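Sample intake sheet
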Amino acid sequence: MGHLTADCLLCQPGVTWARHGLWRNRQQAANSSATAHLADIDATALRGWLEDPNPVLVLAGCKRNANQHDTALLQRRFDDILGDLGGEDGERFRNLPQEKLLVSPEFSTEQRERYAQSGFVPMDIHDMARSLGIEPAPRMPDPNPEPAPEPEPCSSPSPF
């Protein structure tokens, strides 16, 4: 999914750079904490140029199942990797506004709302297609839809 996400981001207007897979130094990560060796970003992109007044750093985490996203862990991974960037460029990237994406094949309405409250933008295959100007087939129906309201009881017709 990281390759697909990076390629999709690169095709979006204003994106000047994108790549898949960004990993911290595995040895350094193993020495810093128990979960740091997992720290990675599945796709990154830059909207605009660093010299522009308002560039945006796009960071994406991909999962095959939309229920598997852990936004708190992913935010720590983003922070860890950006914290490891050294020099003037590292400081510049850490201070850029961020757009944080969660990528999965499909998100339900409830999942979209829950992840948006955490500051992440869900992006699924349908969203990717639309960003490329392709209108995909309708989304799969929600397996747990809200029940339809009960119809009003019919009254008997008036004889007059």
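Comment: DSSP finds six helices and five strands in the chain. Confidence is low (pLDDT under 50) at residues 34-39.
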